[in-house]
Amino acid sequence: MPENVEMDAALRHHSVVFSQSTKSDFLQYTYEHPSERRVSHVEKNSLIEWLTNPDRRPSSQKEYSRRNYAQRTFSWNDKAQKLLAITKNGGQYRAVVTEDTIADVVELVHNNNGHAGWDATWKDINTSYYGILRADVAFLLKRCQVCANDPRKRSKGPLAVSQALQSVDQSALSFLSFDEFFSTSTLEGLENEDHPSV
Ligand SMILES: [Zn+2]
């Protein structure tokens, strides 16, 4: 993170969004809920090598598939030294985020959008970044210290999501059904409840 200029600039004038314990809880959470849609350093380096090393020849069917996948899905910006994901609707590139920096990126985006709600923050992240899951954003936002201390956010937004997620955790539902969960009327019910501060 220290070498990321964009983040340094943002960090200079922002309050603490996620505590250190939230960040370590989140890392633990990513270990316990692995996903192929997150990107490890090993994975990122492997993708970069397929894109930048013409001497690297696939030696198996599996490697051919990997190279095709890398070339179809990603692009290496040599000038910026950045790995970019090509979105399916074409034209637009998203920065690839490795799993160890997800919390920092969510913090940056959520702080820059003025602690907007869960939907808006997810949209901002998903537009510009690749490698972050909806569930990751929900996990982090329900622990945002600024939102937790903002009474205007208690009846809706992250705290409602927080309550909803807690019931997801308790019932041990798979995160695969996360989208289904949010499409139910559960959240509407929660939004009208008066939640005590955390
Ligand atoms: Zn917030």
Question: What can you see in these coordinates?
Answer:
- The protein is an alpha+beta fold.
- Among the domains are: 15-36 and 99-148; 40-96, no CATH class.
- Helix content is 53%, strand content 8%.
- It has eleven helices and four strands; from the N terminus they run H-H-H-H-E-E-E-H-H-E-H-H-H-H-H.
- The chain has helices at residues 5-12, 20-32, 41-52, 61-73, 102-112, 118-128, 134-141, 145-148, 158-170, 178-183, 186-191, and strands spanning 74-77, 82-86, 93-96, 129-130.
- It has a four-stranded mixed sheet with strand order 1-2-3-4.
- A hairpin with a 6-residue loop joins strand 2 and strand 3.
- It binds zinc ion (ZN).
- Residues 99-148 form the Integrase zinc-binding domain.
- This is Integrase zinc-binding domain-containing protein.
